[in-house]
Amino acid sequence: xxxxxxxxxxxxxxxxxxxxxxxxxxxxxxxxxxxxxxxxxxxxxxxxxxxxxxxxxxxxxxxxxxxxxxxxxxxxxxxxxxxxxxxxxxxxxxxxxxxxxxxxxxxxxxxxxxxxxxxxxxxxxxxxxxxxxxxxxxxxxxxxxxxxxxxxxxxxxxxxxxxxxxxxxxxxxxxxxxxxxxxxxxxxxxxxxxxxxxxxxxxxxxxxxxxxxxxxxxxxxxxxxxxxxxxxxxxxxxxxxxxxxxxxxxxxxxxxxxxxxxxxxxxxxxxxxxxxxxxxxxxxxxxxxxxxxxxxxxxxxxxxxxxxxxxxxxxxxxxxxxxxxxxxxxxxxxxxxxxxxxxxxxxxxxxxxxxxxxxxxxxxxxxxxxxxxxxxxxxxxxxxxxxxxxxxxxxxxxxxxxxxxxxxxxxxxxxxxxxxxxxxxxxxxxxxxxxxxxxxxxxxxxxxxxxxxxxxxxxxxxxxxxxxxxxxxxxxxxxxxxxxxxxxxxxxxxxxxxxxxxxxxxxxxxxxxxxxxxxxxxxxxxxxx
Length: 529
Fold this sequence. Notes:
This protein is an alpha/beta fold. It is built from 22 helices and 19 strands.
């Protein structure tokens, strides 16, 4: 029987389900017996009365989403290889080669001027409510940890208090706040705040503004993401704001200036407008021009973020990043999203992470073999824990320096924030209360941060930031343990030989050796001696 990779017609993401959940047709996702008289709990049924609203995950603004699709190959189809012999990056001495000695710092950029304490970053969360409502935790937690944080698309355009003159931004409130929050907590120049721009941001001159007026050194061009192949979108439940965004040139559906639409909204026929961004039109000429413009106004570092597009587009991203000497290229595999990505699109379009990252390695290796410049690379697409971080870096070694994560850091910040509210309301659930009743007792990193920052500064920290910082601390210790077991004591020592494929299909796609083929020559030498 053929395996079905997709779940169709019912999902927690769209708040839909089948009437006969244990009897569903695999291809269509419909109940085997679709009965006249059913109220319509499935996605087809809900679409019959809410139409286009059911395209998107719900409830909007308080969730992050990721695809349910089970791909034929994923990172769980690889295992990390350890060894009992020697050590790299440290003396092979049992008293010295201990896991706390593993160095997780990464430096990159054309001048090696960017330094992160940990080999990961948050690659672009912007104008969605889920990002804004958790920004304190994300910005402060990232800054304290010394990692990168990218302010995603449309923040200026979505801010009602942005001042826009002759089509260009001259002042902002939201973007200023987001940047300042990160910089206020940045320590010893570790980490980086990055400002991303899509078509709308470029038209508004957002990156020129942040470079010239707000002292930002690093900007990122955006070609897309792993969740969708269209522009960013959000929902708006305020008529005046929808009209403002329409006036600013966004695609707003339905038209908030149409008298009939206004009347329908006021009578409750629908409760939310959709705001969409335009899609970019990539060409080498326009790309080169934009990179030149950004350097001319003072950008010290320029990144590119691309999504799960077809292989030819990935090749363009690698080639353009090489040719125009970009500092980082982030490649995001299919399946994830932090905002309002269309649900079926999120599940059914794009190149999955393992396949995309394998191609990325091949393309980078080819350019490197010709003596051409290869920028630092970052891979993204469903990474959440230390084993996956190790595998992602190993898959693209020596070119991949970082892993991008968004949903899991947001989750950590949200949990921290929720715990803080529960502490204030004296309503801690038993599951949490067993660790204590204050943030000093509940968050395991509290004593360290309190000592390092001072009690007064520590008390100012929002619990969302503590949640993210503590999650990062767990990832760091877990990664150090894995690297110590592989006897690799620095990130740049991780290689493709540190992982093995568990299936022949995974080996064929990635070029990583099948598990029983690993060390064949060395094994032969050992057994023949």
